[in-house]
Each structure stands twice: as C-alpha cells, then as structure tokens.
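User: Predict the complex.
Assistant: Input components as received:
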Amino acid sequence: MRSLILAILVCTAPAFAGAYDDFGRGIDANNRGNPSAAERYFTAALLQGDLAPAYRPMAHLGRARAFLHDRRCREAEDDLSDALKLKPDYVDAYNLRAETNHCLEHENAALADATAAIRLKPAAGYFYTRSRLYWHRSDFEDAHEDAIRALIADPGNSYFVLWNAVTGMRTGQPVRAELEAAEDTGGWPFPIIRLFLGKVSAEDVIRAADDRSDKLCEADFYIGQWRLAQGRDDEARTLFVRAQNECPRDFVAFEAATSELKRLP
Amino acid sequence: MKLWNLLAAALFAATAAAAPCTPQGYFDLEPDWYGGMTVPANIEGRHLALLVDTGGVTSMLTESTVAALGLPRRPITGARITLYGGKTLREFVRVPAIAVGASPLRNAAFFVMPDNRVPYALSGTLAPDVLSNYDVEFDFAKAKMMLYPAGSCPLEHALPLKPDEVHHLIANVELDGRHIDAFLDTGASRSDFSLETAQQMFGATLEAKKPALRADAEDGIYTYPFQQLTIGGIAVNGPDLLLVPDGIARRPSDSPRLVLGMNVLRHLHLFIAYSRGKIMITPAQTHRAE
C-alpha cells in the first residue's frame, strides 16, 4: 500500500525534475515550513535512484521532519532508521529519532537516541532535546541539569534561557541570574523573559505576541508555567489547554503543554 | 652564482606554471539541516563537520568545539569581524594541526563563534582564508568540492569578480531586468535582498504587488515574487529572496545588498578562480570537463 502511495506521489512531482532538483526543493520546502511539499519532493528524490549518495541520508531525514510535523511518527521513524543505516554517525538523525520515539511513546528508546546524539556531539541543541525528554517523564532534576548544559553551551539562545527557567522553577533552583544575563534584543520571546523577571504582566506578554498564533501559543505555555510556579493550577490548566489547541504540533510548547496536562490532577 | 639562482627561479616558475589542472583536494560535501554544505575535518583525532562558507572571512570554530579541544583563546586585535545581524567576534584560537579532507593545515587561526550561528551538528566554518589559496570547484549536484592549484585550470566564459580584499565572491547579476552586485555566500541557506534597495530599484512594481510578510522568517521580513535572476548567463526562475530591512540585516555599508545563499547557488555549478578574480558558472547538472 505504501509503495502505491509513493508511486502516486512520484507521478504528481513536477515533470523533468531530476532527483537533485527534487532534493533541493524538499530542503527549501522544509525551510519554508511546508511539510507536505517537502514530503512529496524528498519521496520523488529518493525514488528516482540518481540522487548522489551523500544526499540520501539527508533526504530521509528531511522527509522524516515532514512526517513528524504531521505526527506521522511511524513513517518518520522508518526514515530516520534508514538514514542511520546509511550514515551511522548522523547526529541529527539520532536527535530527531529521539523526538520521533517520544511521539510513539517509546520513552526509553527516545532517551537512548538523545543520549547517542549527545555522545556524538555534546552541543546545546542535543542537551535541550534530552532535557525535554526528561521533562516529559517528570524527571525534573535531570531535565534541569541538561537545561543548564544547553544554556552554558549556547548562552545566546533565548529559548534555552526560558527552558532553564522553567526547569529551575520546577526544581526550586534559582534562575534569576540567567534571566537577567539574557541579552534583551527587544524581540520575541523576550517579553516572556521579562515576565519571569517580574518586570511585565502576563497581559503585556499577550499584547507583545501581536496576534500571531505561533507567539500566542508560546505565550500561553510559558505564562502557564509562571502560574504553575505561583500555585495557580487552574489558570495554568486553562493556558496549557489553549497552547495545546493553538500550537503547531512540532512546537516544543505543544509537547510540553501536553505533558503538563497529563500531570495536572 | 647569480645565474644559477636565476635559472633555478625560472625553472621553479615554469614548474609552477605547468601545475596540472588536477584536484589537490577532493571532498565529499554533506548537507546540514538547512541545506548548507559541509566538509569533514579532523583535529587531534576528533571528527568535525565544517560549513563551507564563501561568505566568511576567517575560518571559525564554535565556542563548544574550542572548549572541547581545550584550545587557548586569544583576543582579536587589528581586525573587526562582524557576523550577519551585527554580532562582533572578539577571540581566536590557533589549531596546531587540522586535516580538512586530505589537506593538512598547520597552526591555522580560527575565530571563535557562538554555537548558534551554525546548526548544532557542525563545529565551525571553512572560509576564504583557506579556500582562496586554491581554485575551488563546487559540483553541488554530485556533492563534491575540488581544490585545484591556483591558476592551473583554463577558464572559459568566466565572469569577473569584484575586487575584494577578503576574497568575497561579488558578481554582477540581473534581477528582473535590473543589474545589481550580488554576494555569493555558500554559508547562507537562504537568499536575502535589502528591502530598502529593492524599494529603490523596483519602487512602482514593488508597490503594485505589495511584498508580503514571511511567516517562516523573523518579524519584519518580507517576500516578493521576483521572476528571474540571471548570473553568468544562467537563469534561475522564481528565485526565493527574502526582503530584509537593513536595520535587521545590519550589513556593512560597503557590502552588496543582495546575498545569494544555497537556495539559489544550489542550482549552479561553480568554478572559482580566486587568484584570477573570476568565476565560471554553469547549470548545476553540468561538469567542467563536458
């Protein structure tokens, strides 16, 4: 059945496009946030058979990104395993397969893949992934340790500052110094950092989101965390439900809000 | 004695001039998360992936790579290096030995860059301070980069590059019938164009079609459906150019307002003759020998 679907997809690919052209279009589609086009182009690139061997792992990974965006977790996992067969030290494939295994609720496999990525390249982004996996398992101490590692490795990433604050608030660790050290560029998500510092209100953060759904969903999740830290669980629950409804499914805030709703009584 | 020296010099020059047009280095390129091209490197037994960055000045290593290698940092003096977006670099390291492909570099200087300026899988960049010692061929369709002895290969229908002291690739291109200098930057996954310059050049047309805000980019960045970009006689239809206000891009004032990144360059096959200030451009799916 899957072969038939793939064959149909190939027929809908643009005429005269070689595998390399389709591969490039797949990358551009993912970069532009168009997963259905990315899936179509990477599928065409892989099926044509003349794609340079160096591009095949990336074609599988790119298609897995597209599948995961649409929560097609099993198909994403197949592609990532294929990518790793072709390139066993492919750190991004391990990292994305960790996310994919979480999507499949294979939490131990997710943690193993995230750890494999860190062994290959102990970089901030991979610590951030593993921190979130610990968080989903309610292992807040380990989540905070990895959040600290991510922030130390990449102090300029404002989302790492926020995540460090979220995990720190949950474990009762001080996070104010890191929040104050964040370089305020004035743009998003700094209004949330200012909220955590007590400098602005939740309403100010919502206003700063400027009616953009991607920002509103993040605002809801982080304000929910802020409310949770204040013991205002009912308000937090409402905000997490809203984040779950508003956020694109491949957003960190979607997954994290989902975990919180499972935990809240 | 002087005669012998002269003869030796002449012989050396003749040998150098006759260096064959065969690659000294032959690299498998691998794409990163966003479609940038990387080459494998090795420092003290550690395997690293470096982004091939024709838009850089000096090759760089990320903060965490420098920390993992335990390399002592030194302050940068006598140069001001600013990254896209305005971030200034302040430190560099010396790497005793680094193997890039089969080519060893000794005591090379690498600037220290923040981790988040390249995808996390990467450890740094390879920039024109290294690349410009060679003639460089990018066969993107076959995922290959070749380094040739400088000046060893014949050039046909080559496009002149604007003189640039840091060996940036600046060539004149045609965008929807208007000529403009463009910066060819393999280190950029996307292409961008100064919003203000676009308004000056295409004022009425741009006004009529109204650039749209790009949902997949930072706040304040627009898009516009340009029809065609032509470079060295090769046309790229519907080039995807982001219109970025100068206040966001914070480009140096003397830098071209149009940057062509990998989403456009991927369509081309490039042979860069750094020492002669020229570039040969053909469609991606052709090869120099053909």
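The helical segments of chain B are 2-17, 63-69, 128-131, 195-209, 246-249, 262-265.
Let me know if you want any component modeled separately.
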